[in-house]
Amino acid sequence: MSTRILVIDDEPQIRKFMRISLTANGYEVIEAENAAQGIEAANSQQPDLLILDLGLPDLDGQEVISAVRERSDVPIVVLSVRAGELDKVEALDRGANDYIVKPFGVAELMARVRAVLRQRAIKGKGNDDVVEAGTVQIDLGRRIVTRDGAEVHLSKREWGLLAFLASQPDHVLTHKQILKEVWGPAHGEDTAYLRVYVNQLRQKLEADPSAPTLIVTDAGVGYRLKRGE
Amino acid sequence: MTDDREERPSPDALLAAAQRESRGRLKIFLGAAPGVGKTYAMLQAAQERKRDGVDLVAGVIETHGRRETEAQLVNIDLLPPRLMEYRGKDFREMDLDAILARRPQIVLVDELAHTNVPGSRHLKRWQDVEEILGAGIDVYSTLNIQHLESLNDIVEQISGVKVRETLPDSVLSSADEIELIDLPPQELIKRLHEGKVYVPEQAKRAVGSFFSPGNLTALREMALRHAAERVDAQMVDYMREHAIPGPWPTRERILVCIDERVDAAKLVRVAKRAADRRGAAWVVVTVETSSSHTQTEADKDRVAEALRLTQQLGGETALLQGDDVVATVLNYARERNATQIVVGRARSRRWRMGKSVTERLFAESGDFNVFVVGGEDDDKPAPLVRPRKVKAPPDWLNLAFALVCTGIAIGVGFLIDMWLPVASISVAFLLAVMVVAMRAGLRPAILTSVTSFFAFNFFFTEPRWTFAVTDTQNVLTLVFFLIAAVIVSNMASRLRAQILATRESARRTTNLYDFGRKVTAAATQDDVLWAVVHHVATTIHGKSLVLLPGDAGLSIAAGYPPEDQLDDRSAAAADWAWAHGKLAGRGSATLPASLWLFLPLKTGRGPVGVLGVQMSEDADIPSPSQMRLLETLADQAAVAIERTTLVADIETARVATERERLRSALLSSLSHDLRTPLVSIMGAASSLQNYDEMMDHASRHELTQTIQDEAERLNRFVQNLLDMTKLGAGALKPRADWADLNDIVGAAVARTRRLARAHTIKVDIDPGVPLLCVDPVLMEQVFFNLLDNACKYAPPGTTVKVWAQRTPDYVTIEVVDQGPGIPPEASEKIFDMFYRVDQGDAKSAGTGLGLAICRGIIEAHGGTIKAEPGLHGAGTAIIIHLPQRDDMDGLAARISAEAEPEGGK
């Protein structure tokens, strides 16, 4: 059975081009033009992935995320406008898995879809203990990091941070999510700590720390660990 | 006053005529005495107009029960009177508001000289009529000649009856039409005997003497003469308006000098009559000398009252300054070409040496005719502004001071007496006299002289402890002491008066100067208003506020102490002052029940607002000198307020022009920058649709690439427009967060690289650059715009460099390209919206928004951005300074303290 993707967007033109390109890539596409239809389809059709536009006519897209999350942990990718950082962060905090900035190219869309689906596949299989990203290997089970085969020494916090990013590779994690997980709930706003530790990690792991390719910044939103395609 | 010797059509005459157009017309039925049939004549005229179909109502008619008069009232609407209660009695007054609301064409108002019951809007009925006329309604009214202000004292002399209800002459002379109701005295007396003349109960006794043939003849003559003068004046007016060449009578000008000593009001009336008889202009002057400030408030009031009376009677007033009264007056007389000088007979002044002002005027007047008016005091008419009750410092305090000083002198005398001969002791007393004279004035000083004289005699001359004097030398000492003491006290007290006067005058000048400085320094209207109310309030030791007109009428624009609500009566007074451009409210003739006194703020262009003042409780109403100061302040305030309004107008106009410029720039930018990518997209898309089969794979790919590139360009443009709109609307507020400059620049570089593959971008950020507290998304946009710009203008193959460094207070970031550079004169303008260096360069189709957005964002972060020539003068360097947060180092230290490796791999 092919992978089924539910597209919730009120713009017929956008649904059309997504349907064509997703179908061409071998996915099965279900369409919904408003929030009500979308939630209904998410419940009844059991899709493998949800692509959700945040600006819907009948209900705020954020509410759709919450409604869907009540019943299922289906991956959700939201479509958001640039400069809508607060929306993105809120969507991610509500349980969305990733976002794409409108307007976007189809290549970018496919990359996100593949990344999210792969993550789901990994989860399905149980935890993949070793995450590989470029020349860096992160062994989550044995808590060992190597770069070009050589072990890299990390502080406890650095390890915590890297492990959390590696637990969901290619996923953006918001500042708040990271801080809560690594520093604890009381540190939800201390982004300066986060910057400093990300910088330290980059110094230790990146080939060029000033042009990071491993731990990349999503401005105003959070960080993601990039495994590369 | 107009200069009447002009030989062209007088502008003032034309102006007056023009003003008459919009005003209602006043017709006065003038009679010599009660009972001549004025009301009857007025009603008859009204009936005629009524038959012509004119909308006519009677505001107030006093028929006094005369039947033939009442018969004339048929068919005429009589507006119900307004019932007013005063001291427990009901009074029926004309309902001014009803008339104004009803707006007939003509209103009949009987008894023009009537005095309204206290609590009415105006003190006098003629003021009501003025308001009706101002509203463009015609008025018919009646008047007896005896009520005319300038004839007031003559009538009293002739008839022995004091007329209390008076009317300014200007009201009668401004009437558009006068109808003289004449009845020979004999017939009037006959009517009186027939009971056809109404006489109030309390006046019955006086009736016999008032209605004597002699009196009536005199009154009739006055009425006739007045009417005749009117005809003359109308003739002259007509000639002036129509520029009929002379010979006009060369008008004389009568100069009247008043001061607090002479009977000023009487002088003014005499002068008015003289001026009327000769058709002369007249001006009343008073001279302020350095000692004028020592006048009592009553004296000052008397002078101010006379000046006000002058204005009421239609004369001109002038306040002259100078210590030599005679010279000042004569100078002014020459300046104004006066032909006559009228002075009062001064009361005898026993204490002064030398000639009186009047005598000197006679001696020095040269070719002026000088007239001296004598006569007994007459009662002053009710003053327009009630004199303020003055609380002078109690005299006994000064006298006590005198006694204390004498006592001290006695004590000092005893001390001296222990060591020195007796004769020197008088010096101690002289000193006491001088001190008292300087501190307390003449009278206490004289008292000190006398008590010192006796004390000296009693305590220090042989035989001591008696008032007896035996030694002739001592007698002489005592006598000379007394003379010296009196002279010294006189001189010292005069010196004191001069000092006080100088101080007072300096205070006034300083006050005005301060005020001028304050309001000139104030930039905004709020500042000016605040300066005005604050200054006025401190000057009068009370409260002050400024009301300015708005959409919903007058409203309080500033107050000191702040005030946000006016009671109804005060608000009505303020409105009245605004509408009529005259004084209203407490202490004035209009709406005196108001808590505030309102002065109109007027400039040459018209009224700008109203100034309200309220004295503190012990001084209810401004004194005349305060009033003069207030009026000057009001004038200055009006000019200052108008200035700010003008500035605001100019600013509005400037902003409008700027907005217009932006609008047209935006339109041209939109049409160019939106359409160009659309043309490419549509062209490429339609080519693909129509000629798909004819194209090879490379061509198809090229076209689709074009579509994508142009769409991205369009997207950037839309993004810029959005950002700019948000910046302009103040909606683009930085959400500052700790951010790594490397991240920000890195993201911008990554975005740029996709577009500008032909350029090399090098990033060099000093490791010492700390975390920045900025909005990462906005800052990324800044660097993207800068890099995009650099790639657009610099030739392909060149390098664009971004480097950043930490300086003590700033983080400095530069984006340097190797392009053609920016002409120095444009280095500031490039940050303006829609500005492009190469306006005609089609190759670099920018939006003209990018740098403007950069500046907006950087400034919102508290930083600066500027353009300078690049390294060695080639290319362009855009230099950004971002402020560093003080807590940055502390934060870094705290974090690195925590960040020690703790093992855990």
UniProtKB/TrEMBL annotation, chain A:
SMART domains: REC, Trans_reg_C. It comes from Paramagnetospirillum marisnigri. The keyword DNA-binding applies. GO terms for cellular component: cytosol; protein-DNA complex. GO terms for biological process: positive regulation of DNA-templated transcription. The modification 4-aspartylphosphate is found at residue 53. Transmembrane segments: none annotated. InterPro entries: CheY-like_superfamily, OmpR/PhoB-type_DNA-bd, Sig_transdc_resp-reg_receiver, WalR-like, WH-like_DNA-bd_sf. Residues 128-227 bind DNA. Residues 4-117 form the Response regulatory domain. It is found in: Cytoplasm. Pfam families: Response_reg (PF00072), Trans_reg_C (PF00486). Residues 128-227 form the OmpR/PhoB-type domain. Keywords: Cytoplasm, DNA-binding, Phosphoprotein, Transcription, Transcription regulation, Two-component regulatory system. This is DNA-binding response regulator. GO terms for molecular function: cis-regulatory region sequence-specific DNA binding; identical protein binding; phosphorelay response regulator activity. It comes from the Bacteria.
UniProtKB/TrEMBL annotation, chain B:
It comes from the Bacteria. The chain crosses the membrane at residues 396-416, 422-438, 445-461, 473-493. Pfam families: DUF4118, GAF_3, HATPase_c, HisKA, KdpD, Usp. It catalyses: ATP + protein L-histidine = ADP + protein N-phospho-L-histidine. It is a multi-pass membrane protein. It comes from Paramagnetospirillum marisnigri. It is found in: Membrane. InterPro entries: GAF, GAF-like_dom_sf, HATPase_C_sf, HATPase_dom, His_kinase_dom, HisK_dim/P_dom, HisK_dim/P_sf, Histidine_kinase_KdpD. SMART domains: HATPase_c, HisKA. Gene3D superfamilies: 1.10.287.130, 3.30.450.40, 3.40.50.12370, Backbone structure of the membrane domain of e. Coli histidine kinase receptor kdpd (1.20.120.620), Histidine kinase-like ATPase, C-terminal domain (3.30.565.10), P-loop containing nucleotide triphosphate hydrolases (3.40.50.300). Its EC number is 2.7.13.3. GO terms for cellular component: cytoplasm; plasma membrane. Keywords: ATP-binding, Kinase, Membrane, Nucleotide-binding, Phosphoprotein, Transferase, Transmembrane, Transmembrane helix, Two-component regulatory system. GO terms for molecular function: ATP binding; identical protein binding; phosphorelay sensor kinase activity. It is an enzyme of class 2 (transferase). This is histidine kinase. Member of the two-component regulatory system KdpD/KdpE involved in the regulation of the kdp operon. KdpD may function as a membrane-associated protein kinase that phosphorylates KdpE in response to environmental signals. Residues 669-886 form the Histidine kinase domain.
